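Supplementary Note 2. Why include the ligand at all?

Several targets in our set were suspected to adopt different conformations when bound, so apo predictions alone were not considered sufficient. For every target with a known small-molecule partner we therefore ran a joint prediction. The input for FE2/S2 (inorganic) cluster is given below.
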Amino acid sequence: MSGGRVHGWAQDGSRPCERLSVEIYAGGILAGVARADTFRSDLAATGIGDGKHAFSFALPPEVGDDGPIAARVADTEYWLTNGNRHGTANSPRPGRGESISPDWARALTGDSEFREEQAMLGHCWTLLGITPDLEKDGDWFRTTLGGRSVFVQRFGDTIKGFENRCAHRFFPLRTCDKGNGPIVCGFHHWHYNRDGHAVGIPNCLELFGTNPREVGAKLVALDIATCGSLVFGRFPGGNTSESLEDYLGEGFPILDAMCTMPKHPQRLNGQIGANWKLSMEITMDDYHNVAIHHKNRYAKNSEIAYFRFGMHSAHFTGHDGTLASMSVACRENRYIPSDYRIFNIFPNLAVSIFNARPYWFCHVQLFAPASPSQTRHMTWLFQTGFPAKERALDRWTRPFLDVIRAHLVRHFTKKITDEDRRACEQMQKIAHQFEGSPILGAHEKRIEWFEEAYDVAMSRGQATIDAGRQE
Ligand code: FES
Ligand SMILES: [Fe+2]
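The joint prediction is reproduced in token form.
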């Protein structure tokens, strides 16, 4: 949005050549329809079709440019998300945060609300684990998705995921966090193949009067996709056409480049006595650093750049490049880091990059919801493959200093995450008293974006925002 015009782009990932019409709403009223068929070089450069998917719409003069503006693909429920690029954290508008639903905190304390929420989120691409844990054929790990126990397993070159529940009498197939071996249920020894079909049923003819194939028992399979070393999954259902690559949009090449992990990344796992959303939101809050992390001053708006892409957002320190330029550089394998950056991937993933002189480290944090007031915090910490400003001395001392550096990075990361955890746990204690919308300042803007994405996921049961946004 600039100078009374709404800019953006829209493309249907499943029909990339089609031009879409976009309805522009101002203050909830249809202000007009724009055709998304204008060429924009950054779209072409980031692989959005032929780049002819942009639109620019002049708001009628009677519409002020400070009210809420929304846009959706005509005759669909695909709402475009707001603003990919904000050069700085804009100066605050009064009342920011009011677009957050007053119900935003319901699932923080209510069991049934939490279950409902998780069932919906189970259809969003969610980080389940990492490929170094699935190195050998038959390796598997157990985790949760959408409030359900699931497991992910390597079969040769492919990675598959299933709900952790036997089709016979619902015994859990995997009863510990990781292992290796075929899928054999511990209750009556039904044996499942890589497609989740029960292919071995003891005494089948005698007991079921037929062969296993006729019994036709089958596990619930997940959609699985990877990005770098990250393994994502979701429950199929509703609109499942969006690939992980489309879901992450410009973030895909970035995560792909950042999250190529060594065999043994450091792990800092723990339990947080607070709702996952509080933990996620504190990673999008640049206002708490003085009070919670004892920084000596508040950041200026001009020191931070925020970006929004699909359901997700990013914070860049400094103004060296944009999300789009970083995405292209990562895709072309020529990205050179310059500053701290964090990427918050909806629903519950935060990936940051930071410098531990002279090398660049990556911190992957997953806030896996366990109950309304409990979150499993899974984190991986490792040195990235991005080029560092290495001097000869660094190279010589590296074998020795790497050990110390890894230790310091771990210590520092743990200190920060513990401070965040304690703050979230304090909030959780009175979460049943959270009523109405919070008041958000310029450095909390991404929380508003996150809650908007959350509303979209809740109202549709899945993340169906296709590529699209306003600027
Ligand atoms: S419950 Fe799994 S084999 Fe019976
Ligand atoms: Fe923090």
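Residues 282, 288, 292-293, 416, 420 surround fe (ii) ion (ligand 2) (CB under 6 Å). Residues 244-460 form a domain with the Naphthalene 1,2-dioxygenase Alpha Subunit; Chain A, domain 1 fold (CATH 3.90.380.10). Comparable summaries for the other entries are listed in the accompanying table.
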